[in-house]
Amino acid sequence: MTGNAAASGGRFRDRRERKFGYDFLDEVLVRCPRCDGCAAVTPHPGPLADGEATASETQNLHRRLRCKECSFFKDQIVDSAVVGAPIDPYFQRPVWLQADCSGHVLWAYNVRHLDLLDAYVAAKLRERGEVMPWAPASLVERLPTWLKAAKNRTEILRTIKRLRSTLPADG
């Protein structure tokens, strides 16, 4: 299912691939603490990158906050990351992609997250993938009710379009 098919009122098939908000943490777009522009939080390319941590260091998450607009950067190691709010789970910065919508806050960690929300909301037919009793609910199954409601579709899609317009030209 692509965003284009959904935009035409098509079908969204939840393949249950995206289980958690963690699936979108490879890049989190945030407000820069120096210039308030769009900055990115990414895995830190150091000797103890997440995939290379030793057994005693598996809880350490190495991240870098970098702003292309003002050249600000900061490296940080955190023990854990809590997802599910419009705040970066590493530096506690507000996410860039957030706006008031239907009496709530619509937000996404990055463009891929926004694309998923766009495809889901735009689709008039939403199908669930195979459900295993032991498997956790997929990310779209856990979306808030207001975001799933057809009555909010137009406003949500308009807000998503507005959020896309705030993205830097270089992606």
Write a structural description.
With 171 residues, this protein is an alpha+beta fold. 19% of the residues lie in helices and 24% in strands. The protein is built from 4 helices and 8 strands, in the order αβββββββαβαα. Mean pLDDT is 84; it is low at 1-7 and 52-59. It has one domain (3-164). Helix 2 (111-122) packs antiparallel against helix 4 (153-164).
Outline of the structure:
With 171 residues, the chain is α+β, with helices and mostly antiparallel strands. Helices cover 19% and strands 24% of the residues. The chain has one domain.
Please describe the biggest sheet, giving its number of strands, its sense, and whether it closes into a barrel: 4 strands, antiparallel
Molecular shape: globular
The tally of strands reads 8
Strand order of the largest sheet: 2-3-4-5
Helix content: 10-25%
How is the quaternary structure best described?
Answer: single chain
Strand content: 15-25%
* pLDDT < 50 runs, ≥5 residues: 1-7, 52-59
Mean pLDDT: 84
